[in-house]
Structure formats: C-alpha cells, structure tokens
Hints:
mainly alpha; flat
Amino acid sequence: MTDVVDSDELLRRIQRARAGAREEERRWRDLRDGFVPADPETVREAAGRVLAYEVVGQVLDEILTPGRHPWTRPATHTDRPRGVNPVT
C-alpha cells in the first residue's frame, strides 16, 4: 500500500467505507430478523455482525463529522482530570 492520495480522495474512500458498513449492517439486520428462533447460533452470529458493522459505521461517521455522537463530545471543564486539556 504505497499509493499516495490527496485529502479529497481519502474523504471519498472513508465515505464509501461508511456507506458500505451501513449497507452491511442493514443486510445482517434483515438476515438476523428473518432467521428462525430455533437456530440460535445463526441468530447470534448475525447479531454480532450487526453490532460490528454498526460500530465501524459510527467510527467512520465520527471521523467525517466529529462530535456528532454524544459519547465523543469533550468533557466539561469540571469532568476533566487536573492538567488535561481537550485536543481541538
């Protein structure tokens, strides 16, 4: 992987990856919801893949739109340990 890409191409690649993760999440969610409850192993695997693609999508989304998710917002001044400053 020695290709040099500019920031626009990198942005396009991240957006494609995020769209792909969302599509895979939907696909596995549909599969999970369509499985017969008598097959718990398959349902469990599909649920795990739904969760994995959901997390990947959230991480890529946070790269593209920082601060969008509540778990990534900076702590308030009183919540930060002494001497720790937020990175902007």
